[in-house]
Amino acid sequence: MRKMRLFILMMCLSGHFDCNASDKAEELHTVKQWIAHRGGISSVSASFVQERHLKALKRPIINSGKLWFKSPRLFRWQIGEPAESVAISKNGEILLLRPGKKTGERHSGNHSHNSRQSPGMLFFEIGFPRDYKEFSKRFTVTGLSRLGDSYFISLKFNDRRSNIAIRKVVFQVDSKTYLTQSMEMRFRDASSIKTKFSDVEENAVVKDSVFEFDLNGYRLKGAE
């Protein structure tokens, strides 16, 4: 392997090898492997720690939570225990809830740009694509690097409205298993949200009741 890398380097320097093409091919292969892994998952349960960095604060705001996913389109993202905020995607509808205040928002799944308001729903949109074709319609890979046993995959939205607020999204992925280790959203205002995942169980038994929520007493705003 070392000799091969040396050979490629020499060919690049001599001008007889298109290094950019080689890099692009490796990038495409890695991203396709990651998406193929995500697309083959029928369910997930995991814990996470979220760090929110704001320009006005010297220290990040740190919260912990859990997520659940069940194919094809059931998803729940919850911060706090008991829950402080909950995002649920079910039956083509997105619920963004604040249990402490008994308030929330109800959105159509077709209004995907609304999910920018929830890092959890953004993770759902990017993290569980059906295939590479679906993924590439909505996102463009802007960079790929490797550090130790992890790939770092940088993405940008193809949607102009999303790009107004979000500069890029960076996923940390295990280079051997293609398990997603973290996701970082970097905003245009220099703030960021980084979510690190742990206790990840893929293809775990997740009951449908996880995606139910008692809305009695809630004040809900409708879709735009």
What does this structure look like?
A hairpin with a 5-residue loop joins strand 3 (74-79) and strand 4 (85-90). It contains five helices and twelve strands. It has 224 residues and is of the alpha+beta class. A twelve-stranded mixed β-sheet has the order 7-8-9-10-11-1-2-3-4-5-6-12. The longest helix has 21 residues, at 19-39. Residues 112-116 have low confidence and may be disordered.
**What's the overall geometry?**
globular
Total helical elements: 5
The biggest sheet, with number of strands, parallel, antiparallel or mixed sense and barrel status, is: 12 strands, mixed
Number of strands: 12
**The CATH top-level class label:** Mainly Beta
Strand order of the largest sheet: 7-8-9-10-11-1-2-3-4-5-6-12
Q: Report the β-strand fraction as a percent range.
A: 35-45%
Provide the residue-averaged pLDDT. Answer: 85
State the secondary-structure class: alpha+beta
CATH topology: outer membrane lipoprotein receptor (LolB), chain A
Task: Tally the structural domains.
Answer: 1
Task: Quickly describe the structure.
This protein is of the alpha+beta class. It has helices at residues 2-14, 19-39, 119-127, 132-138, 160-165; strands at residues 43-53, 61-70, 74-79, 85-90, 93-98, 103-108, 139-147, 150-157, 166-174, 180-187, 192-202, 219-221.
